[in-house]
Write a structure and sequence with these properties.
alpha+beta, Rossmann fold, 4-stranded mixed sheet, 4 strands, hydrolase activity, AB_hydrolase_3, hydrolase
Length: 128
C-alpha cells in the first residue's frame, strides 16, 4: 500500500513505527534520545521558569514550566498546557516549541503542567 505524505511530514512519518507502547520505559528512552538530538528551542523574548508545586498529600511534587513574555510585568491572559503522550510517554520539554509560539503570538503566559506517567503510578502502587 502506498501513502502520500505532506513533504514536511516525510521525515517524521518514519518515526511512528519506532515507538512500542507495550514497553513504555523503552519508548520513553527513545523519545529522550530524539529530544536530545533536536536543537534547543529559541527562548529569545520569553522568560522560562521551572517549578515544582505540591499536589495531593503523600504524592510527589508536580513539575510546572512557566513561559512569560520577557517584556511584560503586568497581568496577562494565561494558557494552561498539558503535554501529550497519553499519560504514558510525554514530558514537558516535548511541548517547548508550541508553548513558546503561543507566548509570542498571543502575548500570554503559558503554564505547562507535568504529571505522573501511568507506568510510574502503577509501579509506585505495586512497589511503594
Amino acid at each position: 500500500m502506498t501513502y502520500r505524505y505532506d513533504a514536511d511530514l516525510v521525515g517524521a512519518a518514519a518515526l511512528f513505527d519506532a515507538f512500542d507502547l507495550t514497553d513504555p520505559e523503552a519508548t520513553r528512552a527513545r523519545l529522550r534520545e530524539f529530544s536530545a538530538a533536536r536543537p534547543a528551542p529559541d527562548t529569545t523574548g520569553v522568560e522560562v521558569t521551572d517549578l515544582e508545586i505540591p499536589g495531593l498529600p503523600d504524592n510527589p511534587l508536580v513539575p510546572v514550566r512557566i513561559y512569560r513574555p520577557a517584556d511584560s510585568d503586568g497581568i496577562l491572559p494565561a494558557v494552561l498546557n498539558f503535554h501529550g503522550g497519553g499519560f504514558v510517554t510525554g514530558v514537558i520539554p516535548n511541548d517547548d516549541p508550541t508553548c513558546l509560539d503561543i507566548v509570542r503570538r498571543l502575548h500570554a503566559v503559558v503554564v505547562s503542567m507535568g504529571y505522573r506517567l501511568r507506568a510510574a503510578v502503577l509501579r509506585r502502587a505495586l512497589h511503594g
